[in-house]
Amino acid sequence: MENKSKEPIYVTKTYLPEKAEYETYLDKIWQNGWLTNEGPLVKSLQIKLQNFLDVPYIQYTTNGTIALQLAIKVLELKGEIITTPYSYVATASSIIWEGNKPVFCDISAKDLCIDPNIIEDKITDNTCAILATHVYGIPCSVEAIEKIARKNNLKVIYDGAHAFGVNLNNKSIFNYGDLSTASFHATKIFHTVEGGAIFSKNKALAEKIRHTKSFGHKGDDHKYLGINGKNSEFHAAMGLCNLKRIDDIVEARKNLFEIYMEGLKMLPLTFISIPENVRYNYAYFPVIFENAEARERTQEFLEKQSIFPRRYFFPSINTIAYMPRGNCPVSEEISDKILCLPFYPQLNDKETNRILTAVKKSFER
């Protein structure tokens, strides 16, 4: 029976700092009148992120999609790029947008990331790169991928939209590949309302990114074909507020993750597995059902209780009309069977219990 009296619970809720703290940064913006074009707050945020993430070079961008497009552009990629069908659509659409062709390689059922065991089967004379996603913040098989790339003279880009703060073998996940990208969208663990970043280990490449995201020139020196991929002081101000609390945010998410795991462990569900050598950020709480019918039954029941999970990721990108087709049965099956439950630190005990109770009741039906 529907319960329309209860407040809706959505799959995510943006973390916001104290308004007064954000306003202190607004006061600085008003005082100096510098709104964009690498202002002092943007520079400060870049330095703080560089130190926090322990990365050599970072460029703060308009959003995570622009970061991907810039990565493809500055590496001068032309041809086929092997990528995952299980990600947000921007991973593959960025490839097409930059005039290249995505070639879909199926995922591993173990970690839902691109399956390195079948990447080489997709390589042709036209292959120029691999673009892989750290799905839900779980690292790809980076060592295997980079071994394949070296053997076949391919570039590697990692889409780390979900991977802020994730470490692999005590090393930031953003230090892998030729370039890595991140999203700082409002739904992410660390956000700047809208925003993103590109990470590089190479100084010359980092400088090229910096120029390219700013119309390709510095002053009157026009060096590259560029776009406007810069971000503003207002967005950087939000980032400076939120970065101070990121450790507390991750800890709260970890606690909620453990509550969910304990509350749902007796149900016929499959959960993501966090590798031992990974410091995780608890980005999402996806659950995989036995089949699509079970997923649909639970989703419908939760929505009647004003609880709104999300089919994330759906559909498998290789099935989207404007995308090249690919044989990706694992991705397509997972997309049909997975739900991301509401998952954010602001959930109180009552709301958490309401979610867990509803999921359990959906199986009783």
TrEMBL record:
Alphabetized Pfam families for the sequence: DegT_DnrJ_EryC1
Molecular function terms from GO: transaminase activity
Superkingdom in the source lineage: Bacteria
Record keywords: Aminotransferase, Pyridoxal phosphate, Transferase
InterPro entries xrefs: DegT/StrS_aminotransferase, PyrdxlP-dep_Trfase, PyrdxlP-dep_Trfase_major
Family: Belongs to the DegT/DnrJ/EryC1 family.
Record protein name field: DegT/DnrJ/EryC1/StrS family aminotransferase
